[in-house]
Amino acid sequence: MDPRIKEQEKMAARIQTHGISTAEIRTVAGIDTAYWQKDNKEYGVCVICVFDHASKKQIECVHAYGEVTTEYIPGLLAYRELPLILEAYKKLRTHVDLLLFDGNGILHPRHMGIASHASLVLGIPSMGIAKTFYHYGDGRYSMPQNVPGAHTDIVVNGQVDGRALRTAKDVKPIFVSIGNRIDLDTACAVAMHYVTKRSHIPLPTREADLETKRLRKLLKENTSL
User: Fold this and answer.
1) Is 70 exceeded by the pLDDT of residue 223?
2) What does the longest C-alpha to C-alpha distance in the chain come to?
3) What dotted CATH number matches 24-221?
4) Distance of CA 23 to CAs 8, 122, 167, 190, 199, Å?
5) Phi-psi bin for 135: left (phi > 0), alpha (psi -120 to 50), beta?
6) How far apart are CA 136 and CA 140, in angstroms?
7) Angle (CA) 193 34 103, round 5°
8) Domain boundaries, the chain
9) pLDDT tens across 119-157, in order?
10) Which of 81, 52, 13, 60 is nearest to 211 (CA)?
């Protein structure tokens, strides 16, 4: 067995399924990572976009990039992404109250998706927002009603690991899970707070995703990299 699996199982025992309230949130950071191949090597870039929670205005955006040597293994994504996330986080000047990851939190076979893992390392409450459903075990959910804010629980082995959340009419749901030190109701409320007419994906992770794609294109074409 990969020793990282044992480590994840131990770390999962530290996750808190309650914590920060919406009234305590002043700033939120959206985090995403993108990868590309160049000269038989793999590179990655991580973007962190910080938003003022009340105004929903972006106040800071930083990134870090470099060679990635950890291979992709399902269920162990955090070990691949965390080095760049930590490098980008060091560049922030803004205090962050809540981390929003383009990925999963406890919606994971060992409850240790990137949102949970990073929260335990950084000591900041977190949540996951995924665009696709991560299927494991006997995980299942029913499609939410076709109205904004409708949701259904994602149940895995008799336990609620997340929610399928309809953020806008006539669009596919997103999949919300707690990372650490937040409850599921608060996580869904945060997700809905950042939905706009332009996108059904919450602003922090949407902007981080767009910026990673922009930087990936620029960095991939940079022959000096």
Assistant:
1) no
2) 52
3) 3.30.2170.10
4) 31, 21, 21, 11, 25
5) beta
6) 9
7) 40
8) 24-221
9) 999 999 999 999 999 999 999 999 999 999 999 999 999
10) 60
